[in-house]
Amino acid sequence: MQANVSSTETTEVGNVAPVGVAAPVAETAPGPEAGVASEVADGFILHVRFRPDATIWMIDECPSHFTPQEWYNFLCSRIPDRYSPRMGGRGDFRVSRAQLEALKVRNPS
Predict the structure, then answer these.
(1) From the CB of residue 2, how many other CB atoms can be counted at a distance below 10 Å?
(2) Cα 63 to Cα 107: distance, rounded to the nearest angstrom
């Protein structure tokens, strides 16, 4: 048995109006490469990914003198207002280009 499919819809006042068909959604490009910050108009988005035990699995723009966990802790201590938690064990820091360069040259101590 075929489902009853109609190309019209009854409105609140009983008038019949045609229902439009949505255009197909284009596929989006794949996400950012691991370790590379996404550049936006006002700076960068540093992506963070967490392991199930809440340690850092991956974080963008990590300088060589930091481990990923140290870089995350350093950013949280210096720019906590720039962090946004996300679903699925992710988060991001939104920073300007100047802020990012200044943070990257600092030593952990």
Answers:
(1) 4
(2) 10
- Identify the H or E element spanning 97: helix 97-105
Question: Which residues are paired to 90 by β-bridges?
Answer: 49, 86
Q: Positive or negative CA dihedral for 92, 96, 97, 102? A: negative
**Burial letters 19-37, b for 16+ CB under 10 A, else e:** eeeeeeeeeeeeeeeeeeb
| Residues 5-38 pLDDT 10s | 555 555 555 555 555 544 444 444 444 454 556 6
Query: DSSP labels for 14-43?
Result: S-EEEPPPPPPPPPPPP-PPTT-PEEETTE
